[in-house]
């Protein structure tokens, strides 16, 4: 099967799979306090369906699979899913983005099943601020989840943080210090218009430039070369070996180097987080489509990929699906 190329010649090799839209937290920048109308179970791909589709993506040149959500550790079969992906040929690298709450229990079995790396979301190391931001008092669980990930060898353990104006923007240097002390690799991500509440406000955005400026009041940052298609610009902190990454999705987009493709928990292929359309695989899959037919649908969706996300343009329209249902 040929590779997943679009009209600009970008080739998708990194597949993000959302395995559930549910979550144990209610982060302010992601979903409302009351949660969301969750996907009905019958609309979600079963493990066998999901593994078949991921296998087709791998035949189409995908070399890294990242499991996400919603909260991926809420999927009861998550360890079996990792083992199933690890059994594909050629075996892709397997990563996960998680809020970390259940890693204390699951890090070791996930590693044994074949998980290679983990990104844990942690926006603050202050218990009260964590509770305000996520609407749950669970900071201690994330801390033990991070320790378990490091002990299990899911290294380098990466931490994702989003800075929100008036909530945790004044403590970015403190989060970096905390991560450096523990050997975790921190990356700040600009807040994107992907919240279910559509409350994102460009004028309140804590930009990557502002995060860098705040960090530089306390640390010396030296840009590291060799970014390639990685969204994070990485910096050596002081004299190293610690580093920090800054992902400027909004103010310094990296769409021209994008190598992503996405599969939602209900079997839709998306060529971009910000896409306003998607291609259904679940219907054809359940009506007996062959691997070749599914591959053609995936290739078609990727071929249509837009040059850029267009945030800030007058005609920008926030996608109907929130981040938690697309897979971040
Ligand atoms: N629940 C898992 C977690 O939080 O890591 C996985 C899904 S979550 C949607 C994936 C990542 O997206 C997290 O690092 C989260 O902080 C980030 N995220 C969620 N909403 C965002 C937004 N509006 N802008 C930028 N990042 C966001
Ligand atoms: Fe859940 Fe992740 Fe969204 Fe927070 S960012 S509410 S942990 S899906």
Task: Give an overview of the whole structure.
This protein has one domain: Aldolase class I (TIM Barrel, Alpha-Beta Barrel). It is 30% helix and 17% strand. It contains ten helices and 14 strands. With 328 residues, the chain is α/β, with parallel strands linked by helices. It has helices at 47-59, 78-86, 103-113, 127-134, 139-152, 172-182, 208-216, 282-286, 291-303, 323-326; strands at 4-5, 11-12, 14-18, 64-68, 93-98, 117-121, 158-162, 185-189, 221-223, 233-237, 243-247, 260-263, 268-270, 279-280. It binds S-adenosylmethionine and iron/sulfur cluster. Residues 23, 29-30, 68-69, 71, 97-99, 121, 160, 162, 189, 191-192, 194-195, 323-324, 328 line the site of S-adenosylmethionine.
* Main β-sheet, spatial strand arrangement: 9-10-11-8-7-6-5-4-3-12-13-14
Estimate nothing, just give the exact number of structural domains: 1
Classify the fold: give the CATH topology: TIM Barrel
Mean pLDDT: 95
Name the CATH architecture: Alpha-Beta Barrel
Provide tags for this entry.
328 residues, alpha/beta, TIM Barrel, 12-stranded mixed beta sheet, two-stranded antiparallel sheet, 10 helices, 14 strands, 17% strand, binds S-adenosylmethionine, binds iron/sulfur cluster
In summary, what is this structure?
With 328 residues, this protein is an alpha/beta fold. The chain has ten helices and 14 strands.
Show the helix and strand layout:
Elements: E1 4-5, E2 11-12, E3 14-18, H1 47-59, E4 64-68, H2 78-86, E5 93-98, H3 103-113, E6 117-121, H4 127-134, H5 139-152, E7 158-162, H6 172-182, E8 185-189, H7 208-216, E9 221-223, E10 233-237, E11 243-247, E12 260-263, E13 268-270, E14 279-280, H8 282-286, H9 291-303, H10 323-326
Parallel strand pairs: 3-4, 3-12, 4-5, 5-6, 6-7, 7-8, 8-11
Antiparallel strand pairs: 1-2, 9-10, 10-11, 12-13, 13-14
Helix pairs in contact: 1-9, 2-3, 3-5
Bound molecules: S-adenosylmethionine and iron/sulfur cluster.
């Amino acid at each position: 099967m040929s590779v997943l190329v679009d009209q600009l010649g970008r080739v998708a090799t990194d597949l993000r799979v959302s395995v559930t839209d549910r979550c144990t937290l209610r982060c302010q920048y992601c979903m409302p306090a009351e949660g969301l109308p969750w996907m009905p179970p019958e609309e979600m791909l079963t493990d066998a369906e999901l593994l078949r589709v991921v296998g087709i993506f791998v035949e189409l040149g995908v070399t890294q699979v990242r499991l996400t959500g919603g909260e991926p550790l809420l999927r009861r079969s998550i360890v079996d899913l990792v083992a199933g992906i690890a059994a594909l040929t050629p075996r892709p690298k397997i990563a996960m983005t998680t809020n970390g709450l259940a890693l204390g229990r699951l890090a070791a079995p996930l590693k044994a099943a074949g998980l290679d790396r983990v990104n844990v979301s942690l926006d603050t190391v202050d218990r009260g601020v964590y509770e305000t931001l996520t609407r749950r008092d669970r900071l201690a669980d994330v801390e033990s989840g991070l320790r378990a990930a490091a002990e299990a060898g899911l290294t380098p353990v990466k931490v994702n943080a989003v800075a929100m104006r008036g909530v945790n923007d004044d403590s970015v240097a403190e989060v970096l210090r905390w991560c450096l002390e523990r050997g975790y690799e921190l990356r700040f991500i600009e807040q994107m218009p992907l919240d279910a509440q559509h409350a994102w406000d460009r004028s309140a955005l804590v930009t990557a430039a502002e995060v860098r400026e705040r960090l530089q009041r306390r640390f010396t940052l030296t840009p590291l070369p060799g970014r390639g298609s990685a969204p994070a610009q990485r910096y050596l902190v002081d004299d190293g070996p610690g580093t920090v990454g800054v992902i400027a999705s909004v103010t310094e987009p990296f769409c021209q180097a994008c190598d992503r493709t996405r599969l939602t928990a209900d079997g839709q292929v998306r060529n971009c987080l910000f896409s306003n359309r998607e291609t259904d695989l679940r219907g054809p899959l359940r009506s007996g489509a062959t691997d070749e037919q599914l591959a053609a649908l995936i290739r078609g969706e990727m071929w249509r990929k837009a040059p850029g996300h267009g945030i800030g343009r007058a005609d920008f329209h926030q996608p109907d699906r929130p981040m938690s249902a697309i897979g971040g």
